[in-house]
Amino acid sequence: MDVAAHKPLADLGKAKAIGSNNRQQWTEVRALDDSHSNSTLYTKDGKQLYGALQANPTGEQSYPHLSDLQGASAFAASAEFSKVTSPNPLKLECIDASGKLNQSAVQQIVQIKDLSDMILMDFIMSQADRLSGNIHSEKVYVWIENGVLKHEAKKSDPAKAAEQLKEIPPEAVLINRMIMKDNDAGLVSGNSAKSYHLLDKTSHIDPKTYNRLLDLQSKLQKPEVAQWYQTELLFTPADFNMVKNNVDQAVGILSSRKDKNLFLDASLSLALGLEEANE
Description:
Blueprint: H1 3-16, H2 20-35, E1 61-62, H3 72-76, H4 79-84, H5 103-124, E2 136-145, E3 148-153, H6 158-167, E4 173-179, H7 192-195, H8 198-201, H9 207-219, H10 223-231, H11 237-255, H12 268-272, E5 275-276
Parallel strand pairs: 3-5
Antiparallel strand pairs: 1-2, 2-3, 2-4
């Protein structure tokens, strides 16, 4: 990112920061924009800094109940995680007797997918503090149109939400979808998903997620991919090896249980037997 573009954003961060710690961090970053004294942050000519600012999702909220749990131990004991670890295949009635989507069943299968995806991602990235309140959600409309499963995030602005609702089919159901927006503790210290054996206990996962994991493992074996991670994403060799080893471990944990007590059934489109519209 160009330093010239970053400076006004850092000034805005200082002005809007809540809490002395956040304000101090923005102050220090803004000072570095002038001094360029940190070679791990700035290019040699001082004109650019590594990394990027990510757009903050708007209208998100704390994930119901899960955001109130403090720590991996509490999460592992939660009713939500118990559904992810259930030893029985998912047999949810996602269509009710009237032929409409059953909101409760749709929410449950989507939540199981979201949680198993989260556990896998955090296992791979050695995330340390996901389970200390860093789980967010957004409201999403889900409906079936011409045999295709469709979804659309609810607008956060009340006026826009009211206009949007006019275009949403009346039979659509409103559910919570997970947002993983606070991810700054990856590859730093600790791995809650690994320490608490959350992936080992996971019994339901989206088949697309599982297949993408296998594809990722294959790609990480290639020298040019390792080089790309280090030159483009600025992973250190240690960072890359940690991710690669975590992926290998994840594949080992899940593949050894496939067709036994791991079910590739955490998918709403699969449960409904429908094609899903591209996100």
